[in-house]
Structure formats: structure tokens, C-alpha cells
Amino acid sequence: MRAIVYSEAGGPDVLSLVERRVPEPGPGEVRVAVKVSGVNPTDWKARRSSGDSRLPFPEVVPNQDGAGTIDTVGEGVDPARVGERVWLWEAAWERANGTAQEYLVLPERQAVRLPEAVSFDVGASLGIPALTAHRCLTVSEAGPRRLKPGALAAQTVLVAGGAGAVGHAAIQLARWAGARVLSTISSEEKANLARAAGADLVVDYRSPNSVEQIRQFAPEGVDVVVEVAPGANAALDAAVLAANGTVAAYANEGGIKLELAVGDLMHRNIRYQFVLVYTVPTVAKDEAIADVSAAAADGALRIGEDAGLPLHRFLLEQTDDAHAAVEGGAVGKVLIDVARSG
Fold it and tell me: What stretches of the chain adopt beta strand conformation (E)?
């Protein structure tokens, strides 16, 4: 089978296409014929390993997310799962084998049934973005721990960077759950994408009256901020948060140091919750998987430019270009067609 591997940290040029034996599943595992592999910022960051050339494994297949079909199962797994369409999550987390290969073996829990009406492209776009977004939307003190239609009906949610993959998923999940949603963006192109995803209001965060625009939409303030750049957006977030509001920060774009006016935030009982999807508690992760699957089945997690998430497609042998696109800040979702070659 064909697989993309790297054996040293570095840029996209360390990725190479090789031939490998088709793996066999062990107890509790399934083997998936991967159709589509999704690329996220976490994938190129893991490949670069913060400049450290030492890897946790002699050889690594990249990419956490993907979708495909189970073609065989290991001992202890229901044989009825053979032929099941699935979406994959965290395939390469603390493992040597991600989704950039034609066949992948992983614990059956990480291969989640994908409804027939949901495409492999959508399946490969769930994983990191949707599970991260779900966590951000369910950590508020006053909010629900599960998402379903109506669960966020009393909430106003601000999604920073609504044109990104996590931001896109957060807008869609929040709308599916009944929230009023606004998003901050930095260009008209990104504004159009956030609107297409379902945002009720989009605001250019660089505008001198951005706070006024948000406060006009949400006079009492916003309940939850899904935040990609807490350092850069600290002042804006503080100005628009409602009392007892929560900032759920899943990244720190720009690398700006987070500085807070503690007295003011303390007075209003503002909460900062930092989110790393990989280390979310098991129960919360399982609930997120179930809720994301339900949202996908309802057609709430659409992709493509008309849904606010343009697609950028590559072949497996072009995985280096796919990684370079994400690392270069491509707007939208980068997908690799694993089962198709040039």
C-alpha cells in the first residue's frame, strides 16, 4: 500500500511517498481503507516538532483526521462493522500512524460510524475542528455539557476567526444548538465565509467601532467566546463579555502574550478556559463524538465554499503541497484524496 512518512522533523520536504505492507488489526482494532485524509495546523506543527529533530517514533505517517470504510476487524470487534463507513479522529495522537496512507489500523473507538448521507469529505473534516469547537461551546458555567437542537437557545456566542476550520465548525454547531452567533473576521472574503457558515453578524475586529457593533447585537454581552487569539483579542473580549461569561481559547494565533485586567474580570466572574482537544476528559470526548455525529447526520456540518469552508484538494503523492498549503494559511479545508492517484 502507499503511505506518506517522515523520519525527521522539518518542513514539508521531509514527507515522502513509500510502499508499505498492509497492516493487520490487533484485538479491539479495525482496519480502515482510507478515502480522504484531512489536514489541520496541528499536523504540520507535529511534523516540525518545534524545531526538535527527535521524533517519538522512527517513522511517522501524518494527519489526525480522515474518513473511509472498515474492511476488516480484529479480535473482540463486532464483524458486522466490516463495510461500515467511518470518520476517524486523533489517528496520529501518540501513535506512529495517521491517515495519510491507504490502510490504517486503529482502536475501534476512533472509527465512528458515518451516515450514508454524509460524504467522506465531511467525515474527514470533522475530527480536530468539530471536537475542538464542541468543547469550546460546552465549558461555560451556565451552558450545557451536551449539544443538540435548542441546547444553546439562551446563549449568545462570539466566534473569533469564523473563516477558520474550528471557527467554521463552532458557528455551525452553535447555530444547530440554537445560539445567536456572531463572528469577528479580518476581511470581506472571510466575512462572506462566516456568513455562509451561519453567523448572524460578522464584525471586522480592526474596525474602530467593533465593540459598539457587537454590543448593539448583544446589549447584555456575549456568553461564550470561542477564541483563536486570546492575546490579541483580550481587550475586545473583555469589552463584550456578559457577566459570568466564558472565553474558551483553543489556540494563540499571533503568539501575543495574554494580559488581563484581573480586577474587572474578577468583578464580573469572567472565566478563561483553555482547550486542547487531545487531552479532553474521556467522558467529555465521547459526548462530543456523539453530538458531532448527530449534527453531521442532521446536515448541520456542511463544507464547501457555499457553506463557508472552501475545499483545497490534493492527491496522496501531493501531501507535501497539502501541508505547505495549511502551513501557509490557506483559507478553508485542505483534503487529500488518498484512494486516488495522478
Answer: 2-5, 16-19, 29-39, 65-73, 85-88, 103-107, 111-113, 156-160, 180-185, 201-204, 222-227, 241-249, 271-274, 311-315, 333-337
Strand-pair partners of 333: 311
DSSP state of 304: B
Where do the H-state alpha helices sit in 111-206?
120-124, 127-137, 165-176, 188-197
Burial of 200 (0-12, 13-18, 19+ CB in 10 A): middle
Question: Whose CA is closest to 96, among 74, 68, 64?
Answer: 64
Percent composition of the chain: helix, strand, coil (DSSP 3-state, to 5): 35, 25, 40
For residues 269 and 243, the answer to whether their CB atoms sit within 8 Å is yes
Dihedrals phi, psi of 106, to nearest 5 degrees? -160, 165
Q: What is the pLDDT of residues 104-144, one digit of tens each?
A: 999 999 999 999 999 999 999 999 999 999 999 999 988 89
Q: Which three cell numbers stand for residue 36?
A: 480522504
pLDDT at 50 over 60: no
Read off the pTM: 0.96
* Cα dist from 147 to 143, 158, 278, 291, whole Å: 10, 17, 19, 6
β-strand 16-19 against 2-5: which pairing, if any?
A: antiparallel
**Cell numbers at 328, concatenated:** 501557509
